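Hello again,

I reread your note about wanting to compare the complex against the isolated chains. To keep things tidy I'm splitting this into two emails, and this first one only covers the full assembly. Below are the input lines as submitted, including protein chains and any nucleic acid or small-molecule components. They are followed by the predicted structure of everything together. The single-chain runs will come separately.
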Amino acid sequence: MMNTLEKLNEIFIEELENPAIKLTEATTANDIEEWDSLAHIQLVFTIEKAFNIRFTNQEITSFKSVGELVKSINNKVNNG
Amino acid sequence: MDNYIQLLLEKIEAKNPEHAAKLRKNLEGMDSTYFEMAGRFYSNYDAYLQREAQTLDFGISRYLKLCADMTDERIKFMATGKYSSTSFEEVEKRVYGNTDTMTYHMHGLVLGQFLWFEQYERIKFFCDRIQHYAGDKPGKYLEIGGGHGLYMMEALRHLTAYNRFDLVDISESSLQLAKGIINDPRVNYYLKNIFDFTESDKYDFITMGEVLEHLEDPLQILKKIATLIGDTGRAYLTTPVNSPMIDHIYLFNHEQEIRDLFREAGLEIVEEKVVISEKIPESRARKYKAPIMYAAFVKSITQ
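Full-complex prediction:
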């Protein structure tokens, strides 16, 4: 079974149309050219659907790294 | 005055480094015309702030509030495919009738004018072509919805033979801001509705920038403009595609919808400019519904 980071990696590859993406918890938007503010919102919507969770607008704009995203997803999944 | 742009970026960087980095990237390679035009405009804005006993930090904080609003509106837009406000009455309560909101919104747009490259492309297109389309002869110039006054400032510079400059706006606060920044006695200001202008109020040139998206029925004002420019006048019209903001009502999903509406109103496009507001390929801009700036010089189809 894929962990959150692996699942996120698949989402990023598909949404940003870049098969070369290899996420780590330290990855930020500065490391991936296609991850701009417009793509970020669509990415988050896809993540919400994939993990069956919801983020607030404030959360959507506050993620600074993949690690923060993973932590937030795991919190929401585990706390239902 | 490129120092003023640098100063703005440094002040923004101190409060929002990610946003400042994006602005710096988008403004890379701007030419001398950009800095000259921005310098003239921000000199007037700076003088206005001083007369109002305000500092640039006041403008910066309002600009960042505007940006936060825009992000919020974009999230809603991407989730629903619609603008969050659907009626003029709703925006009247939410924005126009709310002095605090109106103030930060207007000051934010003043700074955005030269921090957002597509806004510079919009004014540059106007400045490059206005003499060609307005003619170097005495004439009457009208701006509908003067915003922060930049277009009127540039019209005054370029149309030296014109002998009448009118600015009409339905918002008192918008009109006062434009008046304060333009600060030129040649301009007549009217706090009234453009639909109250009569058939005999003909103009040689009309500018209406970023107004259509604020209206429930933009076709009616386009028809009014077609009447006011008559058989010989020209107009410069701009409106955005996919641009969610707290005071935008009418959504254009594609620039073709704007062209179709112009034609329905009896206006023929003589030259147009389309600029994607992010420096990304068109396919990605369409996928993510990036805002697109649309501007056109038009004439009456009967001409």
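For quick reference: The interface with chain B takes residues 34, 36-39, 41-42, 45, 57, 60-61 of chain A (CB under 8 Å).

B.
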